[in-house]
Structure prediction request, 180 residues.
Amino acid sequence: MSKEAAAERHGDLGEQRFSGKLSDDYPLWRLARPFLDEVHDVVAGELRNFTRTREPPLHALDTGMGDGAIAKLLLHDAKLDVVGVDNEPKMLEQARKGLSAALASGRLKIALDDALQFLAGQPPQSIDVIASGYVLHNLTADYRDRLYGEIWRALAPSGILINADKYAQEGEAHRQALRW
Prediction:
């Protein structure tokens, strides 16, 4: 299916930066992030702390799910039902392959959609956990601002946003982070 046909079929999917070669070689991305396991450990720890005292069912959203790495962390918690949303069909294909058991069990649903558009369609205060990994820095400032607005609108009053992303530092802190 052409990109134009996919966009017509699925609405405006927004900018698609991880199609073609980038999605084909996405597994190599891990090599550029030797500390990724540590980041995932922090995400998993925050998630455990959050769900410890809450009763199921809890609803989680993985925005920009890519190959499903963050969704996999969310699915480790049996209290969570997870929806993963991404606008890249090839990335979702990788997620489907890696998370086929969770899809078959019904604990995971995958949506080909633009994150902002998807969130705008969710009821207010309906999502307990919204998670994102290495996505938000890729977005334009205007889009990111609107996305945060929808995140706060859709997030349950006692919900949590887990954003495992990079951010820019200034001066010596930036140089030290690069060396690390």
Notes: The longest helix spans residues 36-51. The chain has nine helices and five strands. Confidence is low (pLDDT under 50) at residues 1-11. The first strand starts at residue 58 and ends at 63.
